[in-house]
Design a protein that fits this description.
This protein is about 40% helix and about 30% strand. It is of the alpha+beta class. The protein folds into two domains: about 10-45; about 50-135, 2-Layer Sandwich (Alpha-Beta Plaits). The model has no long low-confidence stretch (mean pLDDT about 90). It holds the Pfam family NikR_C.
């Protein structure tokens, strides 16, 4: 099946650099691989359950209108689970935030998914550890 995708120049250029260095024969093959990895990550995230310690790291465009308010609303919604937050200015427009959580894995995953869906968020990574593996 064929699809059409619109991408910003800088994203496509970076993607082309990577697929060239990894030896892909075409963009299509690299995109198929990227989609497979995305599906695997989605499946892994859906297995997050039980009491967990979690880390959500996000990189976002601090100038995107309304984004900071939306991120603050999500953090307030999950404040009973949040242990800490660390904010770093990466450059003039990009910020990174690293948040730690303790609680039900599905709730922590819910916070990550809400952040992931916001326009202006460039990257979200969720890592969790089951509490029973560290005690």
């Amino acid at each position: 099946m064929r699809i059409g995708v619109s991408l910003p120049d800088n994203l496509l250029s970076r993607f082309d650099e990577i697929i060239g260095s990894w030896g892909y024969s075409s963009r299509s093959e690299a995109i198929r691989d990227a989609i497979r990895n995305y599906i695997q990550y989605y499946d892994w995230m859906n297995e997050v359950e039980g009491e967990r310690i979690g880390v959500i790291s996000i990189v976002y465009d601090q100038d995107k209108k309304g984004l900071l308010d939306s991120l603050m609303q999500i953090q307030n919604e999950y404040c009973k689970l949040m242990l800490s937050a660390f904010h770093v200015y990466l450059d003039r427009e990009s910020c990174m935030e690293i948040m730690t959580f303790k609680g039900n894995g599905k709730d922590i995953k819910g916070a990550a998914e809400k952040m992931m869906a916001l326009k202006g968020v460039k990257h979200v990574k969720l890592t969790t550890i089951a509490l029973d593996t560290i005690t």
